Amino acid sequence: MKHAKIGTRAAVGIAALAAATVTPSRLPGQDTTMTSVSYSRSDSSERIDPDAIAALKKMGDYLRTLKTIGVHATVTTEDVMEDGQKVQRSSVMDLVAVRPNKLRVEIADQRQPRTLYYDGKMFTMWAPRVKFYATTDAPPTIVQLVDTLEDKYDIDVPFVDLFRWGTPESDLAAITDATDIGPAAVNGVTCEQFVFRQKGLDWQVWIQNGEFPLPLKLVLTTTTDEARPQHQSLYTWNLAPSFNDKAFVFTPPSDAKKITFAEVAAARAAEKKAGGYK
Q1: Which of 125, 97, 112, 95 is nearest to 263 (CA)?
Q2: Is the CB of residue 222 less than 8 Å from the CB of residue 228?
Q3: pLDDT grade for 271, boundaries at 50, 70 and 90
Q4: Cα 97 from Cα 75, distance rounded (Å)
Q5: Confidence at residue 272, expressed as pLDDT on a 0 to 100 scale
Q6: For strand 122-127 and strand 114-118, is the pairing parallel, antiparallel, or unpaired?
Q7: Are strands 257-259 and 132-137 parallel, antiparallel or unpaired?
Q8: pLDDT computed for residue 155 by the predictor
């Protein structure tokens, strides 16, 4: 893995902010438990299990009904070095969100801890280790926010799939394979495991059984890279989190330094051009 070399302390702070995401795609799926299973399907109709699609729709519809959520996630991501060796990174994330317009994400990462704040009017990204932050006016909903950050600043918001499932942006038409693998368990909770495929991506999701069809585990495999790097998230849900409105508003410490998202985007582009993440 080739690291970008950015010379000043200010640029290092920008890079820390720019690396705000550990979520590589808009859609879900992957896991090594599938290595002993093989499938043979001859045409597209056999590759799409209607029960798997129905389960995905049911989960998305249920998520749309949740106005307030708290989610704790343990996230593992693989980076690929120039020689093809994979390096694993881990982080812990905590989300509190109120639909349609409040969100806070705390990312506990030893290299680049950061917190994202959104109060329906402003979005702020805070890098506490280097004490840099960037703030911008924000659109009126969480879904519009994540779209704007991706399109304008090349910033991905963690947990984005939780807000897109069940909406037109989930794009079920892109799925070319869908299979119900069968019963499973995640952290002792019974669920059903489903695998999906679309262009450039294999993904899996474990959905809780019963009245609360919540995603408990999500695994992605990037198929456009011959190393097939994976990204895995394990979710623990709280459907009645405690908070107040101040949780979504960033108040900068006296020693914090403000930068712009234009600088963040430029630093992110420089990292990509250099060939890797810092």
Answers
A1: 125
A2: yes
A3: low
A4: 19
A5: 60
A6: antiparallel
A7: parallel
A8: 86
pLDDT of residue 277: 43
Name the residue with tokens 């990037």.
222
CATH number of 9-274: 2.50.20.10
User: Which of 55, 23, 58 lies closest to 195, judged by CA?
Assistant: 55
Reduce the secondary structure of the chain to three states and give it as a string: CCCCCCCCHHHHHHHHHHCCCCCCCCCCCCCHHHCCCCCCCCCHHHHECHHHHHHHHHHHHHHHHCCEEEEEEEEEEEEECCCCCEEEEEEEEEEEEECCCEEEEEEECCCCCEEEEECCCEEEEEECCCCEEEEEECCCCHHHHHHHHHHHHCCCCCCHHHHHCCCHHHCHHHEEEEEEEEEEEECCEEEEEEEEEECCEEEEEEEECCCCCCEEEEEEEECCCCCCCEEEEEEEEECCCCCCHHHHCCCCCCCCEEECHHHHHHHHHHHHHHCCCC
Q: What percentage of the chain exceeds 70 in pLDDT?
A: 78
The token duo for 157 is 């918001």
- Residues 229-245: pLDDT tens digits? 999 999 999 999 999 99
pLDDT at 274: 61
Q: What pLDDT is stored for residue 109 in this prediction?
A: 84
* pLDDT > 60? residue 23: no
Type of residue found at 160: V
Task: Output the six-digit token pair for 261.
Answer: 């998202």
In this predicted structure, the answer to whether residue 190 has a pLDDT above a threshold of 80 is yes
Query: How far apart are the C-alpha atoms of 158 and 89, rounded to whole Å?
Result: 15
